[in-house]
Design goal:
Number of domains: 2
Oligomer: single chain
CATH superfamily of the largest domain: GntR ligand-binding domain-like
Strand order of the largest sheet: 1-3-2
CATH topology of the largest domain: Four Helix Bundle (Hemerythrin (Met), subunit A)
Strand content: under 5%
CATH class of the largest domain: Mainly Alpha
Shape: globular
Distance between the termini: 37 Å
Helix content: over 70%
């Protein structure tokens, strides 16, 4: 499938997420992304389509749609006559990801602060509280699910389709990186920084949302450099 076609599919998927209507392809994508991010599907591991279809309990056609999206995002690669391999985690590449995230996150956060609906603002406040609880409990899996939910709401609220074409895959890579090196992270600090961003967006303060976005990326860069020193 051509890249432009996949990107259009991603944009449509974002709209379906916002409206609560998910296709089987969307469901397969979200399940596989979570399995990759949380390392249930380990980097470098090769899987057949049949293996993955059984894991996500979804048929081959929607599974292929999901895999095409994940391949465009760089999370998997297709191996001719062998199947699909989960991409490796690369620290140096990750620093380049964060450089791009800084610009895009600031833009998306500001647009979300301006355009979010009252319901989206309430959900962000709720997620911020949930993140604090998950961090206090050391619940990494719960934290990551809330982080994904936060991203989805900000994506929908920003209504910035072109920015989101790059924004969505970058965040998936960052969640996986965090999970891979999670023992070196400060979950409570991460929760505080995420909460600061969510509160700013919920309050409709574009300037504060931009500053909070920069502060979060500052921490993620610090976290990445600590991991780099350990290699």
């Amino acid at each position: 499938m051509p890249v432009d076609t996949v990107r259009k599919s991603q944009t449509r998927a974002g709209a379906r997420r916002a409206s609560g209507r998910l296709s089987l392809g969307d469901e397969a994508y979200m399940r596989l992304e979570e399995m990759i991010v949380t390392l249930e599907l380990q980097p470098g591991t090769v899987f057949s389509e049949a293996d993955l279809s059984r894991k996500v309990r979804i048929g081959r056609t929607p599974l292929r749609e999901a895999l095409q999206r994940l391949q465009v995002q760089g999370l998997v690669r297709t191996l001719p006559r062998r199947g699909v391999v989960v991409s490796d985690v690369n620290i140096v590449d990750h620093l380049a990801v964060l450089e791009t995230r800084r610009v895009l996150d600031r833009l998306v956060a500001a647009k979300a602060a301006r355009r979010a609906t009252p319901e989206q603002r309430k959900l962000l406040e709720k997620i911020a509280k949930g993140m604090a609880v998950a961090a206090e409990r050391g619940d990494m899996a719960g934290f990551m699910r809330l982080d994904t939910g936060f991203d989805r709401i900000v994506e929908a609220a920003s209504r910035s389709a072109f920015a989101l074409q790059a924004f969505v895959p970058l965040h998936a890579h960052c969640r996986r990186f965090w999970y891979f090196y999670r023992h070196n992270g400060d979950l409570k600090r991460a929760a505080e920084l995420h909460s600061g961003l969510m509160h700013a967006v919920a309050a409709g303060d574009e300037q504060a949302a931009g500053a909070a976005s920069d502060a979060l990326v500052d921490y993620l860069e610090e976290f990445a450099r600590i991991a780099l020193d350990l290699v």
